[in-house]
Amino acid sequence: MEVSNRYITIKTHVDGAPKESHFELKTAALLLSAESGSNDVIVKNLYVSIDPYQINRMKSQSSSQKAISFSVGITPGEIIDAYGVGKVVASGNPRFEKDDLVVGVITWGEYSVVKEGTILNKLDPMGFPQTYHLGVLGFSGLSAYGGFFEVCKPKKGEKVFVSAASGSVGNLDGQYAKLFGCYVVGCAGSKQKVELLKEKLGFDDAFNYKEETDLKSALKRYFPNGIDIYFDNVGAEMQEAAVANMNAFGRVAVCGVISEYTDAGKRAAPEMLDVVYKRITIRGFLAADFMNVFADFISTTSDHLRTGNMQAVEDITPGLENIPSAFIGLFRGDNIGKKIVKIADE
């Protein structure tokens, strides 16, 4: 059987803020059968994760493109791969059968041809919605869990600051920190998001950074006795302000620098004398660094979800054609929690 497979691509490299004009919806014929002798798996895409790091893949050049296979550059016109959930419609791979639910690297399209060697696994929903495996039980959750416990090495009672705290990783990091026994303050970009952090997710306090004219003074107000751990999702001025307010032996876990992705002129410039004399550790990381604790992450997080101690915050948009607007919205702060696009029903 042959179908017309619709998919999203970029028309040109994106070297600034992404716009609708950068993207194009294309169509190509696709046979819903695996080639004889191949290990290809044909997947009907159901949900796809929308992640800020993809912007760096769309640039004409970025140092990130040489770091790891997930971050290689995207050529204009080619289909864009991303993490998602799908259903097998045909398989030449003995590991998969028709109608298997799968999670792994699929595409911004209606169907994906998944080649041998590409990350793809059978999905056991474990009683949770399929979308949880792209967010709270996926790489967003692993980033928060590994970044907090493996990088920050927290101690009970420490004071934790989280930027972009209503985002896909930040909201989970704050929840892990609270459950561990830390004092947690987050920042976000709207009154609605601030209320979510305090009223639903259990943060001790939160503030709207857009209402603050002096970030260093704002953090001094919320952390009069200093910050022990800063979970950084934004970079730039926020990182500078956090470092200025850190205690001796403070730790900065750099998960992302979204404020710098679309503005080449923005760069974090923390006071290096503070870094030296306060003996502050600043470390970047990727979710892939924490596969050794993946089983612990899944077990711990599943238990928290089942007991209601953790909340999964999702922002789901229906329709393949809405992937570009969903992606663009990440850089305007439109999303609350994990951004996902629903492509199809099973």
TrEMBL record:
Domain Enoyl reductase (ER): 16-341
Any one GO molecular function term: oxidoreductase activity, acting on the CH-CH group of donors, NAD or NADP as acceptor
Keywords assigned: Oxidoreductase
Pfam families xrefs: ADH_N_2, ADH_zinc_N
Entry annotated with the keyword Transit peptide: no
Record keyword GTP-binding present: no
Classification lineage: Eukaryota, Viridiplantae, Streptophyta, Embryophyta, Tracheophyta
UniProt name for this protein: Enoyl reductase (ER) domain-containing protein
